[in-house]
Structure formats: C-alpha cells, structure tokens
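cron nightly-structures :: item 1 of 1
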Amino acid sequence: MSIRLQTHGGDIYAFEREILDFSASINPLGAPESVIKAARESLENTDRYPDDKCRDLRCSLAKKHGVSVDNIICGNGAEELIYAVMQALRPKSVLVLMPTFSEYERAARAVGADIIKYTLDEKNGFSVTEDVLDLVGQADITVICDPNNPTGKTIDADLLERIIQNSNIALIDRSFADFGERQGTVLRLSQETENRPLSLFSFTKMYAIPALRLGYAVCEDKKIIEKINAAKPRWSVSVPAQAAGLAALNETEYVKKSIEYINAEKRFLYHAFDEMGIEYFKSDVNFILFKSERPLYSLLLEKGILIRDCTSFGLNGYYRIAVRTHEENERLVKALREVCL
C-alpha cells in the first residue's frame, strides 16, 4: 500500500474504500436534528444570494457574547478568517506557538510576514509558560490556539490575559473552545488595556457541520473587524450555513450532553492507553495526542482506520485521534491492541 501522510485531518476522499476516520476532530454525536432541518429547509431559497452581512446570525452571536453586532464578522469557516486577518492587517512579523495548526504560518507567509516561533516543551505537557512573554511584544500579531491543536491544552487564563496585554495584536483561535473549560466565551480582561483580542470561533467542531463551513470572529475594536470584512469574499457564507448556525445557537442541552459524552469516552481511551503502556497527553477537548515508536498511521490504515500522523506538526512519532462514539472507540482500541501488543 502506498502511504501518503495528510497535512490536515478528514481527507477520507484519498482512499478507495470505507474508512473509519479518527483524524478529524468532530463531535461524535453528529449534528443536532434542528441544525440539519434548518439547513435542509433553507435550500428552498437557492434562487437567492446569501445575506452577505449575515445579519440574523451576527445579531444572535452578539447577544451570546454581549457585544455589538459591529464587533462580529462571519466567514466560510475559521480558516477563511485566518487568511482574511493576515490580508487585512498585513503584519511584518507573526509569533506562532509550535506545534499548532499549520494554517497560521501559511497565512502569514502568504503576506510576506516573518515567522517568530515559540516551541512548546513536551516536558511540561506542551503547556504555554511565562517565557513566551519575552517574545509577544516582538511580533505584530501573536497567534494563540486556545485550546491548542494538536495538544488539546488550554492556556492558564491569567497568562493568556498577560499575553494579550503585552501583544500588539493577539489573535486567539477558539475553534475547540466549546469543548473546554472556557466554553465558547470571549476572554474578558480584568484590567483596563487598549489591546483588544481578536477571537476566532468555529461551528464545525461542536455542531459537526464541517461540510457547511461556518466560523466567526469577535473583536471589540470595530476598526479591525471593518478591515477584515474588506479583505474577505463578499458572499462566502452560504444560506444553509447561516441557517444551521442560527439553529445551533439554541442547542444548549446538546452541547452539555456532548461534553459529558466526550469526557466519558476520553476516560475510556485513557484507561485503554494505560493498559497498553501508550504514552498520552490528557486533553481539554475532543481529541487526544499520544506517541508511539510504531508506525501506527500505516498499521491502522491497513485495518481501515485513519488517524492523524503529527509529523506535519513537527512531532515525529506522535499521533492524534478524535474521540468518537463508544463503539468506534472500542474498534480503535481493539486495533491498537493488535498492532501494539
């Protein structure tokens, strides 16, 4: 079998057979029925352009976050907004905390920015420590993935506030925030500062709608939002995506149920890893980073299971798995036992 490592999760289309996908970290409970229904019913309006300003969705998001509608912009997933931010602000230098989502660096390099790298240390579980403060003021934009991908770690709230206060502009990617301890919230600074973080959010992960592509950004500096809006395509958020987003914002019980389910399944997977002697890193979200000297990507792919090889993150010998349904997690554990024991 010819093995081609993936630079992102979810590329099941590269294979000519049925694949059980643990590489994409999507809510294992699937999209809520109300979200699917809203997207389906919106297809009756395929003869209309989408609302390019996402008025209804932004209004609901403004109420959720307690900000003005003018402080919110929607996009075709968080990724589009990452590129729009770089195009709009044209930084000369960008600080990136490695390992992390590769699109920050790609988007920064696309506008000619220099990359300042801060490497997270495995010895302290890939947690961000205070020494990052020595670098944040050197960059035009500091990018923080919180919780981080692929480590699943949430930054200490006090340290995150200090990073924001010392940054020229702080871009906080909260795409997995709905699964973490600071669920989908915008960080409220405890002290007065002129710095206003730009927070990114995604509907993709929690509400299991990657096919619809929907994300948004919140910033209390309206001028930054205006610049980003001028840099992104006008009709990038489809009618079904906007309808799905509006429905998703009402699914509070679904979110609670999802977190409880995922936490229970993480405990199941941790226990299985302990029994097999697999070294892993406890996660605040819906995926787990672990390491192995065995070529698990290829070994599991032979069994029809796709996991995320983290070589493209700069982590050789590390892998990331999504937390899926119990039956699917059992299948993964069975396959791991067959190739590891």
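cron nightly-structures :: done
The first helix runs from residue 33 to 42.
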